[in-house]
Amino acid sequence: MELNHSPMVTLNHLLDYDINQFYLAEVQLSHHLPVLIERAGSLTFKTILQKYLDYVRQHVQKFEGFLAEGKGGLPEPGNRIMEAFLDEAEDRLVQCSDPEVKDACLLASVQSINHYKISAYGTAASFANALGMHNKAHIFHDAEVNEKQIDERLTQLAEQEINIRAKAPFLLHQ
Question: What is the pTM assigned to this prediction?
């Protein structure tokens, strides 16, 4: 997918570019998360992923509002970074035959996406604050907080359940 971008000569241009990329990434993730939820074995994991999907859908709506303020329509979905994360998750999942190991693999993949988004939203909040766009900064900060909440829940789940089961999955099946 080739994107036609204007030159970025100001921080505002960079922030506009990032907003487009956030929107594209969140749309892609909103389409893939239901499939990942289906593939998760742990009920607790499915519940966390469903909450994550709720956050992602909220982010899409907020970014659609930002994009509606600007010129032109909504961009066509296709963020290369999110696509790479989702492709990598699929490659890893295909190689996991045991359900407990598959959950560990899936959790690690989702957490990689989550960490990328924490960083991106934190940076965007900083850009928006520097530009005096405090409403946008607040929305980016809220998105970052949502991502951190999911990250904390995923880390707890990994440490208390998923990784323990994946460590010796054959013992669970005997």
Answer: 0.88
